[in-house]
Zinc ribbon domain-containing protein (DUF164 domain) (Aliarcobacter cibarius), 242 residues
Amino acid sequence: MNKYLEDLIKLSKYDTSISQFEPKIENQKAKLATFVETAEAIKVGINSTYLEIDDLKSKRTKNNIHLSELKTKLDSIAKKNKDVTNEKELKALQLEEEIAKEQVSFANEEIERLDKLTAAKEEKLKEFQEKLKVEEEDIKEIRVVVEDTIAQINNERNEVYAKRSELLSQFDNKILTFYEKIKRWAKDTAVVPVKKQACYGCFMKINDKTYAEVLRGEEIVNCLHCGRILYKGEEETVTTEA
Ligand SMILES: [Zn+2]
């Protein structure tokens, strides 16, 4: 095979594998990010549950203050009761006492209701904290695996980079410029195999003359349809001479 063509195939393969490293690394990072996001969502849940509990507790405190005010009021009503001089005053005091007692029982019911709600929220908080613990342990494990995998990918990438620069050190400049021009639009498919007499870049059938040239591999042949550099695919064993 033509040496330049051989070099081009190698270079193209290195470039293709180099451009595949970044998505592989991103994929690893995304794996970890999914777990971190879940943990963050749990933390948000924990914070808002804490706020809800604080709110319930402050409502409970208000009810307690109200209760002690009512108690003072009832005490003073009891005192006034002794000094009542007529029926009208007595009735007014009784009514006042009745209302205060109703308010006491309402405040007690409210406290009971708030306590139940608080207990439920505290239960929820506990669940959140357990979930977070599990998630954080998972994150620790996954982080180790992901970091190892990324390090491995980086090693492979460095190896390919080294091979690539070694290849480039003895590469023909004109051929390199030619390749880079095609690569600008064709990206990783600047150099493609021919399979079943078709260009594997544009998938168009190539004519017999071009096909014969590709099979011989004595010179650099471009696809007449798209301009990519062609080489003989592995399964392409038929020769036009046969
Ligand atoms: Zn083509």
In short: The longest helix spans residues 87-169. The chain has four helices and four strands.
